[in-house]
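One such given next:

>
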Amino acid sequence: MMRSQTSSFINISQQRPKTFSLTLTISLKPQKTMKEEFLKLPLLKDEAIKRFELAVDGHIAFIDYEEDEKIIKLIHTESPEALAGRGAATALIEKTLIYLEENDYQLIPLCPLVFAYVKRHPEWKRLVPSKYLKLFDR
């Protein structure tokens, strides 16, 4: 004996307007805040003197660091007076954080400038080991 089968399928497309569309954009990378003039400048990691460097108009802004396996401690940031107010230190910090993320490093921001930057841009806390995150609550 054969039973007839009844379909419980409903064609949803008949119930939606024909012009229905949805666009969702999710960015996992933080929005860059560095100025256009710094975007194409390369970041140099000088392992001999343990320094990240950004050369701008003949001047060098740098961050001193210590490295232990895949953890980098950013210790001190310095930008020459000639670059003051141009955003060179911010660009240097952003490029360094991008480098750390792309190379699977964890960050310990001992430099007050780097710490303040991460505090203002909490999306970068993802690089900080969990045992140090409570420091940002102060």
Summary: Residues 88-102 form the longest helix (15 residues). Strands lie at 43-46, 51-56, 59-68, 71-78, 106-109. The domain at 43-137 is CATH 3.40.630.30 (Aminopeptidase). The CA atoms of residues 1 and 7 lie 19 Å apart.
